[in-house]
Amino acid sequence: MTNEHITTTLQSIKAYAEQHHVPIMEDQGIDSLLQLLRDQQPKTVLEIGAAIGFSAIKVAEALPDCHIDTIERDDERFDKAVEFIKKAGLDNQIRIFHADALEFELKELGPSYDAIFIDAAKGQYDRFFEKYGLLLAEGGILYCDNMKMHGLAEQEISEVPKRKRTMIRNIKQFREKMMAHPDFDTSLLSAGDGIMVCKKK
Ligand SMILES: C[S@@+](CC[C@H](N)C(=O)[O-])C[C@H]1O[C@@H](n2cnc3c(N)ncnc32)[C@H](O)[C@@H]1O
Q1: Under a CB-based contact definition with an 8 Å cutoff, are residues 7 and 76 in contact?
Q2: CB 122 within 8 A of CB 128
Q3: Residues enclosing ligand 1, CB less than 6 A?
Q4: Domain locations in the chain as residue ranges
Q5: Per residue in 63-98, pLDDT tens?
Q6: Three-state DSSP string of the chain
Q7: CA-to-CA distance for 30 and 54, rounded, in angstroms?
Q8: What is the mean pLDDT of residues 126-130?
């Protein structure tokens, strides 16, 4: 399958995302993630939160020798992701699972990944980490998107709208936990909506 198929599929994905209000990574965020992954050169990536396949396809395009597993719980988004991945000709390189990642059986995956990318329910990152961090290879890197939450996670909690406080509190706590984690070297990049990079020692 040629790059042309990937390019036209990515255009269709962007149009669909805009029309159906599907949150996919912004250009600056995905470009920064791809740069980090090009530097790392993982052979295996696990993504939590595929949506309609945009970031998985971008990673597959940037790293043709890398295998990607990704998980999406929403029925409609999962179906669209399967369709787009096939249309891009990447169904040999990307495997997508239809499941709630918090209930998914780990034995379906792995055995381990060089990189794990979390881009799912924002208040649950610590739960995803506790479950999937086990699958990170030694020296592997965990990447977490939306660590700034469009600036909300940089404000005092009293300034955050009440309905978002639990989520923002969880993000702040997770950031602090990873910064202090003895088994990881962690840095917080301001690119896009804030990408946290945690390298397993
Ligand atoms: C921001 S979108 C992902 C965007 C995608 N990574 C991209 O840039 O193309 C987050 C997705 O995570 C999914 N999600 C949230 N919690 C999940 C869970 N527990 N298990 C699986 N998917 C989940 C949502 O349905 C949503 O489609």
Answers
A1: no
A2: no
A3: 23-25, 49, 51, 54-55, 71-74, 77, 100-102, 119-121
A4: 3-200
A5: 999 999 999 999 999 999 999 999 999 999 999 999
A6: CCHHHHHHHHHHHHHHHHHHCCCCCCHHHHHHHHHHHHHHCCCEEEEECCCCCHHHHHHHHHCCCCEEEEEECCHHHHHHHHHHHHHCCCCCCEEEEECCCCCCCHHHCCCCEEEEEECCCHHHHHHHHHHHHHHEEEEEEEEECCCCHHHHHHCCHHHCCHHHHHHHHHHHHHHHHHHHCCCEEEEEECCCCCEEEEEEC
A7: 10
A8: 96
Q: What confidence score (pLDDT) does residue 200 get? A: 95
- Give the global pTM: 0.95
Cis peptide before 111 (omega within 30 of 0): yes
74 CA → ligand 1 middle, Å: 8
What is the dihedral sign for C-alpha 165, 167, 172, 173?
positive
Topology given in CATH for the domain delimited by 3-200 = Rossmann fold (3.40.50)
CA of 49 to the centre of ligand 1 (A): 3
